Amino acid sequence: MSKLSLTQAINAGLRRAMEEDPKVVLMGEDIGTLGGVFRVTDGLMKDFGSHRVIDTPLAESAIIGTAVGLAYRGFRPVCEIQFDGFIYPGFDQIVSQVAKLHARTHGKVRMPLTIRVPFGGGIGSPEHHSESPEAYFVHTSGLRVISPSNPQDAYTMLRQAIASDDPVLYFEPKRRYHTKGEVDLDAALSAAPLMGAARVVAPGTDVTLVSYGPLVRTALDAATAATADGVSVEVIDLRSLSPVDYAPIMESVRRTGRLVIAHEAGKTLGLGAEIAATITERCFNYLESAPVRITGFDIPYPPSKLEKHHLPDLDRMLDGVDRALGRTNSQTGMED
Amino acid sequence: MTQTRHEPTGQAAMKMHQLITADGTRVGDELLDPFVQDVDENTLTSLYRDMVVIRRIDVEATALQRQGQVALWPPMLGQEASQVGSVRAVEKDDFIFPTYRENGVAYIRGAKLPGIMGTWRGNMNTGWDPYEVNMATPQIIIGAQTLHATGYAMGIAMEGKEAMAIAYLGDGATSQGDVHESMVFAASFQAPVVFFCQNNHWAISEPVGLQSAVPIAGRAPGYGIPGLQVDGNDVLAVLAATRWAARRARSGGGPSFIEAVTYRMGPHTTADDPTRYRGVTELEEWAAKDPLDRLRTYLLNAGMLDAAGEAAIAADADAVAAELRDACINIPDPEPMSAFADIYVDAHPVLDREREQYRRYLASFAGQPGAGHQVQGSAS
Lengths: 336, 380
Fold this sequence. Notes:
The complex is a heterodimer. Chain A is of the alpha/beta class. In chain A, about 55% of the residues are buried. The termini of chain A are far apart. Chain A is built from 12 helices and 14 strands. The model of chain A has no long low-confidence stretch (mean pLDDT about 95). Chain B has helices spanning about 40-65, 80-85, 105-110, 115-120, 130-135, 145-160, 175-190, 210, 235-250, 280-285, 290-300, 305-330, 350-365, 370-380, and strands at about 15, 95, 165-170, 195-200, 200-205, 205, 225-230, 255-260. Chain B is globular, with a radius of gyration of 22 Å. In chain B, the strands form 2 sheets. A 6-stranded parallel β-sheet of chain B has the order 1-7-8-4-3-2, with helices on both faces. A two-stranded antiparallel ribbon of chain B has the order 5-6. Chain B has 14 helices and 8 strands. Helix content of chain B is about 45%, strand content about 10%. The N and C termini of chain B lie far apart (about 60 Å). The interface between A and B is large, with 47 and 43 residues.
């Protein structure tokens, strides 16, 4: 076991994948000599060469589009999109090409791309540097979307993503980049939880709180704080956003009868809406109250001096728990 | 607002390379001649035969659309020399990234007629295995495939192999960001890729002058890529130009850009009405430059073709057309549950559940009159 930060865990995962398979190549802006703006790829060009750690021109559509061509040729490209808000110029290649080529060719062509996207807010950046665009990709059939919340998952899930023959969007919670944790670098992938599996990270009996990526830490803090208030919150780390692993959520909700979902992305048609609808369809008779969404607002990501209001924090999660429990909360008295 | 330009006007015309003129005369070209020295009588007649056959395919497919047998067809009428000349320069190990109009290229590359027609009839997404013919699927998003070709070529270079990728594109595609980005990447990484642009003068209703203020091939040098303008209705010149670019690619010379100046004689697709945006005079001018007529004249004058030979080629083309019609109208409808196939390689529980729900729904019709296809689908 090694104590690693989340960035170091990703770096170790990239290194291991490149050692194991010469067809794994990294592509992106500034990932070579600089080691990435977050230093996630630090040292990899030095060790693997510029033909496998490719510093590209500044063109997101081309980073993805040429990776498509490399995948046609049998490579397994790992693309880095520098920041969440920069993914939109590559959007067409992702949703029209990467996602659909396997279906378009009736299974003949595989697109084993991994697209790494540092995402989410809380680091005081200007616009385009703090967004949560995951729902666009969850909405697109043909893509898998995952987001680790801790260094061990970051390491393991990245290796699983690279090994997958499906294209994977790998959303990195950048405000947790410096979070450290124990990582077993030598654990067999076959023994690890599946890339698509959700996990209960704190058991509880009163309310089920579902989150992913950067907010899992916040959710765990909220669960601890709720304990002091006599409320037992079960926290589930989704890990996979497409597909969502509904089994542990349903199992939990059938026990607790109450569901809260938290994410940084805006509420309207965010992943929380899908989970709330699905759990309502499938667990309606077990629910004691309507599912509650704790999300970013439906606004462009605000200036960083305002982001603490936009991002769900511990108190907003507790307010959501109160809503689920029917206690007095911020929405008490709002009739519609 | 200035008036729409029909031809690029911002720069003096480039030299347009040519080997056979519109009246069927063989002329010399210093750059291209060395690339066709091996072209003998047999090769020339086979180039002619290929053009006749794909024109016949095009006519038959257009007729099938008019008869309601295919949903849509993008005609290649007028572009036979560009398609035949370029694909005949491509080696087996090279990989082709087409647009949606390269049905002639696909046929000559070895794609089977049911597959070619199945896409346009709506039975399948694509009708060939890209790795069997080393040709990607038809690409409808304009210009997207130029990046795929560039990436594929980067892979060839990384492996140290002698091969190339060729990206087909149209004049309209040159306005797309992906085409710009592909040329930046191709030049930066010296990728063995050939950009083969068929300037057919119209992007649906938008003339080429709206896409580019300068000759399209004149843009490539700005990326550090040599650009060559060739008479796209001259199959021999197109063959030579593509061989020139292929040799550059395979010998480590990096990317090349070819502008084949041709003309789309028909509509953009069978859903289009070109009489709304272009005049009869223009059509007549281009009809006089027809790619088949000029090679036929040349072959007849050179004694390489006679009436019997022509009749044999026409009979071959008719046979292909009959095969195409038969293949097209007899393609079986896809099974309903096949809509769920090949979305993911690995299991996706959310989609798997949706598939299972629909399977059960279809099964619920079992035994009811008129529910045969649903029952059949439920069993797949």
